[in-house]
Design goal:
The complex is a heterodimer. Helices cover 73% and strands 0% of the residues of chain A. Chain A has 12 helices and no strands. In chain A, α3 packs across α9 and α4 crosses α7. Helices cover 24% and strands 33% of the residues of chain B. In chain B, α5 links the parallel β7 and β8. The radius of gyration of chain B is 25 Å and the shape is elongated. The relative contact order of chain B is 0.12. Classes of the chains: A mainly alpha, B alpha+beta. At the A-B interface, α8 and α9 of A face β6, α2 and α4 of B.
Amino acid sequence: MAWLGVVPFLAFIVAFLLWPAASIVVRSFLDQQGRLTLQNIADLSQPFIVSSYIYTIELSAVTAAVGGLFGLLLAYAITVGGLPSWARAGLLGFSGVASNFAGIPLAFAFIATLGQLGLVTQWLKGMGVSLYPAFSLYSFWGLAITYVYFQIPLMVLIMAPALDAMRRDWREAAEGLGATGWQYWRFVGLPILLPAILGTMALLFGNAFGAHATAFALTGGGSQSSVVTILIGAQISSDALANPGLGNALALGMIVIMTITIGLYSWLQRLSERWK
Amino acid sequence: MSFLEINGVRKTFGQSVAVEHFELRAERGEFVSFLGPSGCGKTTTLRMVAGFERPSAGHIRIDGVDMTDTPPNKRKIGMVFQSYALFPNMTVADNIGFGMRVAGRPRAEIRARVDEMLGLIHMPEFARRYPAQLSGGQQQRVALARALAAQPQLLLLDEPLSALDAKIRLSLRQEIRAIQRQLNITTIYVTHDQEEAMSLSDRIVVMNRGRIEQIGGPFEVYNFPQTGFVASFVGTLNVLPAEVVDAGAGRVRVDGQEIALGKPISGGAAGQRLSVAVRPEIISPNGAHGPQANQLRGSVEDVTFLGAIVRVRVRLGASAVHFDVFNNPHLAPPAHGDLVTLRFPAESCMVITEARNH
């Protein structure tokens, strides 16, 4: 009877995770006529696909690192940093909204501010600073800035409780023993937080790696220097280039990369929390 | 000049006064306890000595140096917390060596000192364990070793035994005192447990509502309390409402029965109401105090068996008196309804006055 309550959850996992994943794996090895083939996997080595994977991994890693760093600093400021409680409530409220503000609305919000005719771009132009053509919202760094908009709040939301759980007497014990603030964080604070930081960074990486709509809206779905999710979309829904088998193989590649990322994270986490 | 001097220290949080006019001088090697109920300001005072709180007024000097504005990491103080506060990511050895490590001491020196400290707390085989793998008592011993390893000039303990069970508390209490004597380190110990304060301290500072009520040795504080608060907080006390019969002769009436106080009642007048206090262990239900002792007659209302001691409540009339007798398996304790005559020497009576104003 105790298992009865878990049935909806298990059904959800089967329907929306295991079944699609199994379907992707199987279809990656089928051609358009449904015959077994390794051609889809072999096609993954095409230069534009390899460069797309590298581009997506770099974009995910950069936005996870930048979002993680700034998110951690912000979370620190509103927890142990001693900012007033209204600042904490305000930032957490904003983070709750911003971490879910992704996709097409976010892309258009950035086009309206940092696009060629965006408000900020024009305002800076009026001040004599020309963003374009040195910067482009539709380039790697433009995409990275847009992603960071939802990566930072996600880091704040997850790290704030972890920082709240840091006990004041650890810091006082360290200070009493002669440690400076830096020494406390170097030897005590950061090692204790490291598992949470690593876990959240892996989540941010996955969050960026799987993003589709934001990148699609900004890049217009161009297949060159594009993220992998856009390539998958092109293989499945494009009229001229459609190759569902390759699309499934691309998705399988994403599953493999995420599995490696999670494996790496688990190994690092085990190393960092051997004291637990 | 004393080793530790706390002069006129005051601490306020907003409108609320946590500590008021705190004055204390402690000598090198002395063990001083701050004793009082929750919220009396004892921990706040300790935290001011440690440097975690800044006094709103007054000065703190350690070994002649004004430390009032010195940050905690420059005070050379060892502190032990109620919650142990061991660093969970470090082994026992790393915890103990932390103070020397941040001070940049050589590895060999740290290792030698850690071994010495592990020996001192009788835990040499636990060096490589993590705090999560230790019991509460073991964690607190490690916390003590960590506080002592860097050879602090002052040891501060904030209710270090409160989270432990009774048996471990007792053994660790003795261990703390033995180590403190061995190292001859000046120690401030915060507790709300009077037995702990009595058994450990050279002197006790009894605090209430942010103020010092009395400073004195355990014998003095227990037997000669200077205020009503000290008399009632330290030990168990019978407080009996009384009426002055003859102030000059020191005689009062309690529930219609006259007793002597052994000294004149200064400023008293016949008919004046006051309170008389007597410790339960002074009162005897037999003739132990001789025929000259005070006598109060009443009936046994309740008997509580406390192990080594049996506590008996006797109803006098409007008031009740407790007395203690040692448990004797060959002697039945008084029974409910028994009529008894309680005897106690006149000199053991205390006249309760209001708390002193500092």
